[in-house]
Amino acid sequence: MQRIQDYLVVAVAALSLIFTAACDDTAATNDGGAGGAAAGGAVGMGGASGAGGASGMGGMPSTGGMPADGGMSGAGGTPEGMGGDPGQGGEPACEPTSALAESAAGDLAPATRINSLEIPGNPDRSGELGCDIVEGSNNGTGLSGLLRLLMLDIGTLVTPDDDGDIQVVLLGHLDGWNAGETGDDASDVNLILYTGEPDGDGFTITPDSFVDNDRANGPKIQFPADTSCGRVATESGTFEFGVPVLDTGLNLGLTLSATTVKGSLRAEASGFSMQKSTINGYLTFESIVELLRGVKAACDSMDPPEFCDQAGMFLGGDPEPVARMLVLPILRGLDSKVNADGTVDGNCIDAAECNAVSVCLGFESVGASLTGYQDPTGE
Q1: 43, 169, 210, 216: which could join 196 in a potential S-S bond, CB 3.0 to 4.6 Å?
Q2: For the segment 140-170, what is each residue's pLDDT rounded down to a tens digit?
Q3: What is the domain range of residue 243?
Q4: What is the tally of structural domains in the chain?
């Protein structure tokens, strides 16, 4: 049973950036600012995690285990208005952030570290988190079935354990927001996402944050962003990242299409923080098939991972039937259609028309300091 779970972790759980980083648990750090997460069951947003050093807001409430499956959502989530309270009619209030402090400035500043994560378990929870997914879909809940199967709480990956260590360091940088500017003043801003490792009171950026592990090629994940009205709202783009396959040295490429990042924004002395924020995107069937092909390549390597002994029965032929029969039922099926022009339609009729699984991750973050880049040679 454990080996079957190992197979699912690589072939399916790799469908999120968090599982990607979890494949390598060498990144750990002490973080006295963030509160601890309750670990039992598949809790949401790190349980009762405090935002220490940030705004003083508590983490997103725990769902007390993964909620029961919901049906198809008639509404595509309830994203917040720009700067206003969610669900309030009329023109939302626009309140800019405070000016960014000099202490938060620098070449790799302002920065933030994700300290709370949740994948919604049903469409109602998606609405509470502010997931911005097309109408007529599962509202970003597809990965929750996988978490339930694996009995995994992703919130514990980014919150400190009892020793103050953090398994996975996920970082953000708002390039273009300068000291003395409010979010409304900033222009030509890009939100760049990195993985990192601890470095004293800050974090270094790891090479796998860049295309082909080469900083000269630019970051794998970045989006033009609007920081007005006390919020971050990115343009739609591609969310690409590599999934390292245990000890094989292989990386499996994975892509979320039509991805956006949205949430409340606050300037901090040590960077910026985000509250009630979401990553919203679509995992196409083609991307799932490509992932399975990557798993097959890993199992065909000279030194295949242990799970290949059990998974080999699934990987001998065409990966498309495997994706449809094994992977899609766990992800609650295809529920949306990504068009060639990057737009997305919900209410698609069947598998012949639908071509993607909607994905939403709720998160919060605290201010952080990026101290530089890790040497790609590891020296």
Answers
A1: 169
A2: 998 887 777 766 677 888 888 888 788 889 9
A3: 2-67+93-284+358-373
A4: 1
